[in-house]
Each structure stands twice: as C-alpha cells, then as structure tokens.
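Teaching assistant's notes for section 4

Start the section by putting this record on the projector. Ask students to predict, before seeing the second block, whether MacB-like core domain-containing protein will look compact or extended. Collect guesses on the board.
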Amino acid sequence: MIRNFLKVVYRNLFRHKGFSVINITGLAIGMATTILILLWIQDEVSYDRFHQNKDRIYEIWNRAPIDGEISSWNTTPTPLAHALEKDLPEVERAVRVKTDVNALLSIGEKRIVKSGNIVDTGFLQMFSFPLLQGDPSTALDNVHSVVLTKKTAKSLFGNEDAMGKTIKIGDTDHFTIAGILKDPPSNTRFNLTI
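Reveal the predicted structure now:
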C-alpha cells in the first residue's frame, strides 16, 4: 500500500512539474517561517528567566491617556519605590533602575564610553547577576561605588585586578570599584557594563 502510494506521488510530481514546484516551495517557505517565528518567540520569552526569584519580580509601568489614547511607559516617579516598600507589606523589596545611561569612564589618560544602569543598593539582591568579585549585599551600599562587568574591567585595566580601584565617571565623579560582575547573558533587558 505504501509502495503504491509513493509511486503515485512520484508520477504526479513529474506529470505536474509546475504545481509540484509551487507546492513544495510554498511548503518549504511555510515551514522555514514557522521555525523562525518559534525561535523568535523562544528568545523573547527567555529574557530575564534566569533570575532565582523570577516569579516574584515585577516591573511597574505608567499608563495614562494622552491625546485620547492610552499610552504606557516604564518610567515611574522616583519616590514610588520607597513608597511601595513602606506602604505595601506584600512588597519585599523595590529598586529603581535607570537604564541605558551613557558614561565616559576614565583612568588617567585612558577613556572609554560605556552604557550602563544607575541602580539602587538592593539591585544585586533582587536580581541574580553573579559577582566574580565583591559582596552582592554590600557592593552598592556606598553612593560612590560602582560594579563593572568583567569585560569592562578588562578593557580598563587589562589583566590587572580592578577591585578597590577608583575610576572617574563623567567629568568630576570618582567611584570605587566594589564588584566585578560576570558578563551577563544576552537575554537580559539590563544593559550591564557599568
């Protein structure tokens, strides 16, 4: 039976070459598109899924009517994080994150521009970004502390140990390196270099 079926398929492929090419091409394009869409969806839903408490981490967004339409954005008033911790017992920890901040890092005459985040002290306790050096519970306690990724530390200091050294960010601010972060995976929304 199967042998007979394959003979009929083979004969029809060669009798109707034009239709066969169109059908096979359409099927191949459809399958390739489906695979690409599934890979894209898998990548999108994998973002920040590596954090230990991923099921307990939420991001707050603003929603407001603008010109008759509801607009949403992920910027909230600065005091909101403190108010949430204080007023809602369900909130264990709240941190503020300012993303994609471009900064000029310099040590003596060496200067590089990197994009990073300005975060609250509890950032490393909330998110599971592993530190190669430093203590995640105290690394960001000081206002003039900074945590660099391994890649950024290497580009600034080479193979020299960067822990405890001072770098200049911007024109005047000096920060002490309090931690070296393992280079983050590509599937995180945080641009972690500094």
